[in-house]
Amino acid sequence: AGFKPGTIAITAPLVNPFTFQARREGDTLVLTGFVPDMATREKLLAAAKAANSGLKIDDKLAYASVAPQGFEAIAAHGLGLAGKLAAGNFSLSGATYNLSGAATDAAAYEAALAALKALPGGASAGKIDVLPPEVKPFGWSVRRGDDGSIILDGAVPGAAVRDAILAQAAKLYPGVKIENRMQIARTAPEGFAAAASAALDQVGKLKGGAVRFADGSLSISGEAAD
Fold this sequence. Notes:
By secondary structure, the protein is an alpha/beta fold. It has helices at about 40-50, 70-80, 105-115, 160-170, 190-205; strands at about 20-25, 30-35, 55-60, 60-65, 85-95, 95-105, 125-130, 140-145, 150-155, 180-185, 205-215, 215-225.
């Protein structure tokens, strides 16, 4: 009694490197590592809940100083991706941004790639290992539309293969409408790129024809042009 509170200053311990992690475990997003203060913690918890509806948030964060420049924006960016990936794991070590996991569908994979091309200011890319969705059976096709267009559909193993197929189609069929419905996925059989290239060449010899590729087997249907 008789004492009046004065100025109280408590400094969080200095941690180097300053780390932060969001790890998906089933239907739970586990947050570990450090935040610089209570206000930042509350903002990141709100960001985690907003970006990952349906997931439980397990808060195991502690306090430390000094957070890297732009920490809150960088951490919020990673929180928006980790929960959307199977076994998603986002981590920061200083300002180095690491992300791994497997997309559950093609749309999630494309969204993740787009987000990773636009990291917040201050962040630098570290280990990035985001896998496309797994597709079984792995199917792909090229066919002639009723209007004579070339329709490309199904799964491809990567952006480079997809771009090569589109470039070949444009070269083989100048002036013809090319409709791209291809999506990136895992588990492509060996020799897929060569088979797709051959299929593109063959479909041009058919009227209203189609060439389909499923787990290593090719099927051709249609009417010969002559």
